[in-house]
Amino acid sequence: MDISVIVPLYNEVESLEELTAWIARVMQTGGFSYEVILVDDGSRDGSWKKIEELSSRNPVIKGVKFRRNYGKSAALNVGFIQAQGDVVITMDADLQDSPDEIPDLYDMIMHQGFDLVSGWKKKRYDPITKTIPTKLYNWVTRRISGIYLHDFNCGLKAYRHDVVKCIEVYGEMHRYIPAIAKWAGFDKIGEKVVQHRKRQFGVTKFGMSRFINGPLDLISIAFVSRFGKRPMHLFGMLGSILFMVGFGIAGYLSYEKVFEAAYKMTDRPLFYFGLLSMVMGTQLFVAGFLGEMISRNSSERNNYLIEKTVGDL
Ligand SMILES: Nc1nc2c(ncn2[C@@H]2O[C@H](COP(=O)(O)OP(=O)(O)O)[C@@H](O)[C@H]2O)c(=O)[nH]1
Ligand SMILES: [Mg+2]
After folding, report:
1. Three-state SS for 158?
2. Which CATH class, in words, describes the domain spanning 3-226?
3. What's the pLDDT tens digit per position in 151-185?
4. Parallel, antiparallel, or unpaired: how do β-strands 87-90 and 3-9 relate?
5. Does this model's pTM top 0.70?
6. Looking at the CA of 74, which ligand is closest?
7. Helices (H), ranges, the chain
8. 201 lines ligand 1 (CB under 6 A)
9. Whose CA is closest to atom 6 on ligand 1?
10. Boundaries of every domain in the chain
11. Is the CB of 8 within 6 Å of ligand 1?
12. Contact 178, 225 (CB under 8 A)
């Protein structure tokens, strides 16, 4: 199969008919074999009934229904597990992304060697309350991930089959899939300017919470991918440095007190700094140890992504 289109959705009943018809037109014109996986994340507006109806009319349309709302990342993850196509496209259900982009995205993955291509909504049709925070957001993500994309959280993305089979998204991590993919070893990440359109039906489903949960997830991803399997290297090092700084300060103050002048230790602000440093250093060190002990018992510890093997294994 050439293409799997994954559409996570939450209360988008009005859009589904038009969306699937449009995807079908594009696929027929391009002569692609395809499937559409609609993941209904506990919608309450009859989206699932619509999906059943669409699927009965056209069997390439498949549906997964969650019992309750788990979030966009969970929906994408389920789609990734199910997808069979050589190229996997994700897109929003609200018709803000255009299926007309699919053939070019397919070409970039199959013939230009990209592992992942992210859409860039260069011209956006969204309210300013959304576009300005998003700019800041993308800037921070660029700095942390080292990936130079303009628009990390565009719903329209294309992936090589292997990529979606290797990565796992949960929480609010759908915003950082390029970073997750890069840290899993897929570093051919491209960008394509895509058409963006005004929302026709319904309202946006993401409120202000995205600006709090999102950055926390980015920190988790950055931490887990670098130190998840070796927490002691981070905490142990920071802890040792802090402890030694504190110890040095304490030594210096003691020396002065004994040999130079008799003063009250607590009169020197440096004393508190040294004390704090030693206490925090010890705590960090212990945190590293605990992390090590947890990860030693975790089945993830030796879970590596093997790209290929050769020979009779
Ligand atoms: N699975 C799932 N999809 C969601 C959820 N919230 C939004 N979506 C889908 O994600 C896409 C983008 O959402 P939208 O509200 O348009 O966000 P915006 O374009 O950033 O304003 C749409 O297809 C939504 O139906 C959710 O909680 N779960
Ligand atoms: Mg939208």
Report:
1. strand
2. alpha beta
3. 998 999 999 999 999 998 887 789 889 999 998 89
4. parallel
5. yes
6. 1
7. 13-30, 47-57, 72-82, 102-111, 128-145, 161-166, 177-183, 210-227, 231-255, 269-296
8. no
9. 205
10. 3-226, 231-296
11. yes
12. no
